[in-house]
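STRUCTURE:
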């Protein structure tokens, strides 16, 4: 566990977070700078730097992250209004925390346009 990694610190309970779900493989907590009324991060408990560091052996883990996000969307009451799952990977996507996570965002209309 890289001690410099903030999400590893959250997994270990050494950094505070509003946790909405956890099991042995996945943890979900509120984004510290929410973009939308609902903005949760679904992260792996294991340190994996990015989607580029996954492969066939992590397919089930990635599926579990999506399944957890879907369940949280229901619990957060956005499954009918709509929500978006997002995994930023690398510089062009603006990935800022290099510990695999997906964003669950919703609770308002979210246009999707590039300038
Ligand atoms: P990325 O750009 O890497 O996909 O997203 C990283 C996200 O992590 C950002 O939305 C940022 O607000 C969030 N974040 C960064 N540091 C912390 C933290 O210490 N606690 C929580 N809860 N979220 C964080
Ligand atoms: Zn980490």
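SEQUENCE:
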């Amino acid at each position: 566990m890289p001690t410099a990694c903030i999400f590893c610190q959250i997994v270990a309970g050494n950094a505070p977070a509003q946790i909405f779900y956890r099991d042995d493989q996945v943890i979900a907590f509120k984004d510290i700078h929410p973009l939308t009324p609902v903005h949760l991060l679904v992260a792996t408990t294991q340190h994996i730097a990015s989607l580029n560091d996954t492969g066939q052996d992590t397919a089930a883990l990635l599926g579990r992250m999506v399944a957890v996000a879907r369940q949280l969307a229901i619990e957060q009451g956005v499954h009918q209004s709509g929500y978006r799952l997002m995994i930023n990977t690398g510089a062009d996507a603006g990935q800022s925390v290099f510990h695999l996570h997906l964003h669950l965002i919703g609770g308002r209309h979210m246009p999707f346009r590039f300038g």
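REMARK: The first strand starts at residue 19 and ends at 22.
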